[in-house]
Amino acid sequence: MTVLLSEPAPAAGPTAAGPRRPRRDLGVQALIIASIVLVTIGAVVPLVAVLATAFGSDALPRYAEFFTSSVDLTILRNTLVLGFLVGVCGTALGFLFAFVQARLDVPGKKILHVIALMPIVSPPFAVATATVVLYGRRGVISNGLFGIEYDIYGLDGLVFVLSLSLFPVAYLGLLGMLRGLDPALEEAAMNMGATRWQILRTVILPLLAPGLVAPFLLLFVEAIADLANPLVLGGDYTVLASRAYLAVTGEYDTTSAAVYCVILLVPSLAMYFGQRWWLNRKVRTTITGRPSGSVHLVTGWARWPIYGLALLAAAVIVSLYGTVIVGAVTRVFGVDNTFTLDYLKEVVLGVGSEAVLDTLTFAAIATPVAAFFGLVVAWLVVRHLHRTAWLLDLGGTLGVAVPGTVLGIGFVLAYRPDRYIGDFQVFPSLVGGGAIAGGAFAIVLAYVVRSVPAGQRTAVGALTQLHPYIEQASTDLGASPLRTFRWVTLPLIRPALLTGLSYSFARSMTSVSTIVLLVTPETKIITSQVLSAASTGRYGVAFAYCTVLTALVLVAFALIRLVVGAGVSLQRTVTSERQKR
Amino acid sequence: MTAAPVATDSVVARPEAGTGRLQLEALTKRFTGRSGTVTAVDQVTLDVRAGEFITLLGPSGCGKTTTLRMVAGFEDASTGHIRLDDAVIDHLPPQRRPMAMVFQSYALFPHMTVAQNIAYGLRLQRRTREEIATSMRMALTSMNLVGMEDRSPHELSGGQQQRVALARALVVQPKVLLFDEPLSNLDAKLRDAMRAEIRRIQKMFGITSIYVTHDQDEAMSMSDRIVVMNKARVEQVATPGEIYARPSSVFVADFIGRANFLEAVPERIDGTSAVVTVLGRQLTVAAHPTVAAGGVGTYLMVRPETMRLTPVTDGGTGIGVVLRSTFHGPSIDYEVETTAGTVTVTEVGKDPREALGEGTNVDVTIDPERAYLLTQD
Q: Pfam families from the xrefs (chain B) (predicted)?
């Protein structure tokens, strides 16, 4: 004590005051530059390449053609109708599952939750292919069980498959919102004489109405951007994404492709940013005071039809994924049901092993990079950039806002030719036959760019919740911003890191639309193998690929959890405890 | 009190004079969780007269809110019965009980305007447009909300939200009004104003009211009777004055206001009074029925403001020494070390310049009329 007291006070003066440094910390600056470079080469340049081609002089007449050709206009209408229907059906399905989960007193809700999340993990192909096998013209269920010759190819099949594949996003969002409603509001209504149905109609639905818009828009965007399902299930029903893909791969007409891309970009970007704007509005749903009361689960007879509906949907989901697994080990599922390991052997040990290995390698490289940049971009946006924050935020988000097909075509346009300045080659070809590393660089880059936004979004959410004082306390004690990020911020938002890593890996492994345009003979990717297997009718092989891919993703989830640590469950437990009472 | 016939199947029962008697009979609530069964409310029996304002008071976790929620119908009682005007209502769901609750969070519907919030219950009752308009006008006027009909709840201050919540509960003309700590989100000044407001409205309409709070001041100033609860059980049911002057247990005396507990051995007991020797003086004081002559664990409860300090000026020593004095504005608190331990004495209305200094030798006198002999729980 005495030593401390006798120390001359002024000694602390100069260090504490220090020379004022208005300039940003070097580490932070480096991160800003790295993020900008990534976003630029991964998203901005390809997008600009598409736009440049689409507005080049030889492209302009194509617009007049497009808007006068009845074929093209039908494609545009098809796309919008598909987006709308998937938005409505997917959101409704998500609400159904969320309502059952949050409000019905029924058994087996945990299992229903897991079933509702299954579509996140597996590639959309699995669902599309299984749908053809089960519910198609010669479907095991539609024809075998009910004797109907139903033509699943077309709009109905697409809506069915896309709604089932995409609804988990709506489910999770609506579940969170339902659980966030102050139970006292429902009790107040109940207390004044409202019946269950009246509460749903006058309180719950009006309060959730704004919350239904965001998932609708998000599903709309994802549905019109989807390429895989229209290729497998579209039949005569052509949409912009599949049309653009055919223009590149079948007709080698990049100009038309770019034009289709731009026309697809308009509703995509509008809906995507409409959705973000809608979510960011300052909506006050709760008034002063803590939420009180407890959730009253529906216990009357009315729960059974609703539950039945959810069970039916769950049964369909299970049947589809069951088909994938069973289909992988039967000769021709539904026709020749003999057990076989040939398909799995082909995938794991034979021709497919190369694809599995390549995909794993690329995804393993892309995952940490994407998760890292997701966090960094979020951290820069929330904490370090002010006026330019929205720009970086926007750039980071382009990976999902721009349809994968458009991004893929952008990569082709921007990076297929070698770039020369004079005679000097500044940029070698990254895409196509002669690309360096067999196009691996472009594939990994595409994975990263497509995966960054998910981690970025969760991290922005987590960081906004985290009071800046916590970081300021660390900086105040003398830590540099990077040190603060490493030792204070990162541990606190570890759940966001976990989500980012898991989601990045799953997205990379299952990504199709961008990747099918980037694969070369030297690089094989599981999803493009599935596409070729499925479109040539080799369903067994397609199922085997899907099974292996799903297994790999699940193993990776477990590994990521093991390495990063399971910090996520903390908040979950608290909320679920509250739910139980 | 004559029991009026109750239409248990109708959603609305307009209160008639003399209706609204609420009886709780051995009401018990047990929650079964992973860590075993917890009894949240244990054998609560209570008879609330029609038009009475009764407060459930106790520390958090004492079971007062659970009791209220059972009355409202949000929780089912494990055992016991609830009667409204002599009819058992245990089986009625909340929407069929002619009661209205004012929530701690107000629970105003954020997607409706003030008018829509207030009209909500009336609409559910399928009242005519004119009826709704009339009731609305009355509610708005009596709650000072005229001109705010079209505002959204989040545009209102806390006090205004509170009044809308009260108006919404009142217009459905419930037989029983339930309050779940409705003032805990308001600041102190507003809280005082709202207390008076709630009481005024309650008296005006003569609606039986159950009010839950952990604020003893709130309970004292508003209630006809207070129910003090502790650890799931009822400790005492009495008027505020009775509770303050004649608490039935050390817990109640300690929870309501401040009290000194001086160990005392009753020498003689005569009906409801006893003779004890405390601080060197023999006193005849009122005693709780559980007090037994010569019993141990008996304490004399003395409120700080009923004690008097006299400085010993002639150089002698008194029975106590002032340890510390704290100035509160209208009153001064003294902590005095005595032979019976440290006691707190409050002097009201004294000139602060004449406050006794620390270390002053004092005599301590107790007003036997206002002291009460108790046994330790």
A: ABC_tran, TOBE_2
